[in-house]
Fold each of these.
Amino acid sequence: MTGKRSFVLCADDFGLSETIDRGILELVALGRLGATGCMVTGPAFEADAAKLAAVADRIDVGLHFALTDLPPVQPVRSIDPEGRPVSLGRVLGRSLLLRLDYEEMTAEIGRQVARFRAAFGRDPDFFDGHQHVQIFPGVRRAVFAAYDRGILDPTKTWLRDSGERPGRIVARGIETGKALFITALASGFARAARARGITVNEGFGGITAFEPERFPEVFPTFLDHLGPRPLVMCHPAHPEGPANVSDPIDRARRAEFAFLSSDTYAAALVAAGVDVVRMRALD
């Protein structure tokens, strides 16, 4: 496909389940993705990492840093002394109250980076956070400390900025309140990254209500309102296999895969005049 503009379509949550991993790998084979983020503490990561490594020359493969929903590699005591999985609300609340120990989180970033390197034999192409934790106050301090201390290399690992210009958010009209709140949390994040020589996306889309029936209608809206170096996230999972009752967006994941693997998606790219590429192609 050849278009007038390009964007990175990034599939989140590789390693969280076999059906998610299978869906992402199939979309890579179809040439539908520009990136995927790995949850190295996910229950399927160890079994499926080699399959992703075999096709990692086609897309950016990054670290999808997990502080919520999954246990950390080692306990982050300012979140939970026992290292148990915690909710987004707990991490966000403690972050806003400045009750997170950024040294503990910097160490956990290092442990998850080390697990990524052990699986792929190299640095992650990018770093972001599950449920956007990388932009949270306190957490972002740990992220930048990881770059400052050489745990992450700004010449090798770009960062996801979950913020977007309010005008684009309003123009899309998709989950406007949620997107504006995330943008407020991300204030100053991209500026701090660029000051360190770290590449960041400029323009962010993909925030939805996870309504399965509406995804084919909603997704093209993100293509109509792209920034200068845009990234759109998605959360696909292969439709075959048993339903995952513990995953609140399981049905939405399967609907996203159905659309992204379809001719309708390919036609939407052509209609919008865009290509899916890796981040380096946007530079």
Note: The chain has a mean pLDDT of 96.
Amino acid sequence: MLFNSFRFLLFFPTTLILFHLLPKKVKGVWLLICSYFFYMSWNPRYVVLILFSTLVTYAGALVLQAVRDRGESARKLQKLTLIACVVLNLGVLFLFKYFRFACASVSAALSLIGIPATMPAWDPILPVGISFYTFQTMSYVIDVYRGKVPAERNLLQYALFVSFFPQLVAGPIERCENLMSQLKELPRPSYASVRHGFLVMLWGYFMKMVIADRAAILVDTVYGAPEQYPGAFIVAATVLFAFQIYCDFAGYSTIALGAAEMLGIRLTQNFETPYLSTSVREFWRRWHVTLNTWFVDYVYIPLGGSRKGKLVKYRNILVVFLLSGLWHGARWSYVLWGGINGVFQIMEDLLADRAKKCEKTVPDSFAFRCVKTVGTFVLIDFTWLFFRSNGIRHSLTLLGSIFTTFNPWILFDGSLYTCGLGMKELHVLAYSLLILLVAGLFAHRGVRIGERIERQPVYFRWLVYIGAVLCILIFGIWGSVYNASNFIYFQF
């Protein structure tokens, strides 16, 4: 059930109205039923997987809690319980997401040395959101093992934590200490929170339907036929893909935040104007915040972090980014994408002292910050080419076309109007990106436009609401050119 589908436009108001009307004792049960219905609308059979992950980590956490205070003799049982929970969860993730990829990689490696190999018949459809809820359940059981949070004894309460529908299939990846306590209380949402949540959802729909889905048409056209659209076409499509994936993923997260707020729940902000970053390191502090903090807390720091010298630190950075690339998809181009981002971070760290010396000779001005921001965007956008390509060979073809074909005039002579979007459509996209930039600059400076709107008179607020809805309905991508497959990050 896509957020931008007619079914969701029926599902969510029904869920919200009954949530407000039902007594507090059954609100949690109602949200749990709605969350499972939401997940089963994709593929009812895969509800078994989320149930399995829920039950394994629920039982494992109870065992960890029960033996925590029994001295050193129970330490081994704790470790074995934690290992079993992690292995079982990662095993299911591997089976459904990486098994065929691993077999294909082994088969390709064997064929290079002349050993024939046949692929197994197992090729399941990837369950929606499996990477997200798997990481969420693993963070919970690890935190219980560390003594950071107590084990939840109420199975229904814990099941709701795992399956809470706004953030179930594409994050944010919530921690127990933030979400569980709110789900236990489930305070009655105020009119202000419902109003603000609705405004937040409208912004998310604008990002997704007006910007991301429109940019996707041009990006898919160019990347699908690089021989027909060489050189500057690919550069333009790659720049647009940077905004497509941001507006697609941040748009989903924004809709999720707004929907949860209308239910009285505050989710973690997953994006903080990442394209206004002045370094790659800062970008990754602002992009997909909950996934990056997950890798820091459960991979980077346990490996030693930056405590054991620079070589170990750089190794840990590479490990985290390679795993992050693999988390995004079962393809070597994703791993390469992650590795390049890791290398960029290491290079930044190696050049940090020189950069500081250079900055002392250059006054800290708006122009200088713009140069650093644009430079960071170029580096990040370069890596997006590998992310968007259909594989390493495809990405090398795209890069080769960029560096061997010189045709910058196509950016100005109207040739871009042949890439799936006409002149009016491209103009709408350009104006929408300008709105996105202005909103991002305000947010970067700590100015919350939504809060400013809510302080205005009633008639002004309703003009904004109605205008936003009309903008989405008029300029959103609908009809035959709309690909209702999924949000990009649903595949991860």
Note: The CA atoms of residues 274 and 282 lie 8 Å apart.
Amino acid sequence: MDNQLFAYSPLPERAPLRWPGGARVAFYLGLNIEHYQVDKPSTSIFAGTAALVPDALNYGWRDYGVRIGLWRMLEAMDRHGVRASALVNSAVCTHYPQIIRAGVERDWAWIAHGRDNSTVQAGMTREAERAYLTEVVETITKATGRRPQGWMGPALTESFETPSLLAELGLGYTLDWCNDDQPYALTVSGMLSVPYSIELNDVTMFAVKSYTGPQFLQAIRDQLDQLHAEAVASDSGRVMALAVHPFSTGQAFRQKYFEQALAYVAGHEGVWLATSDEIAEAYRQQRGIPAPAVPTGTNPAQS
């Protein structure tokens, strides 16, 4: 079947896109904060034990992120004034409340990222998925005091029903479709796609492509420089998403490269240090696209 969620839109045919303060590139840091079930396989650094239960090697690698790696990364983020767009599993709210408190103190944006990174919606009925998504959204809202505006599925997974169900819950954008350098409207009324990146993503770079720290840093510099040059040449803004996971980028020997990357982005001319929420809202205002309404009888809390 052909894709019916969005239409083809070649970049040169679009109306110019403007960012606040005349910025050319809107940058956000997609900080993946995830919980994993100990008896299910998931993202792994060593395939040889990935099917074992328990898989101490790979589970421990992932668990390092919430215990150590994230707290190390926060130091660099704080120094360079970079707020996270936190892609958070709702189970994080229960298992790691200290992380939620740290994010609330820093005014992070909270993007619903499923219940945990061991559960996906594949095979769910529409009603089962509606109940699942409702639980995820309401749990995050209660814990953070802010209703999520965006969604990214665990491992960027969706069902064909997911976008319309998210709209029913009052969410307004998804990060799952990594096919653009600008936001765009989906065919579901009020829903947007906001750029995310599989290429500029530490799991891809470090675990799949075996990048070194200097290569990671150079890729970030090259991405920003190219997007900025294109935005200037076309007089139309771009989005740069940097996707990171604390169990990967949060390793001690990568800290200085993460620090240097943030310094480069924060010091670059024409860059708006934003969140994915702010990017979606700026796009809506320019294109006249209202967000889906938050359903009555739910918690619409916004901080």
Note: The beta strands are 25-33, 84-88, 109-112, 150-151, 173-174, 184-185, 192-193, 238-244, 271-273.
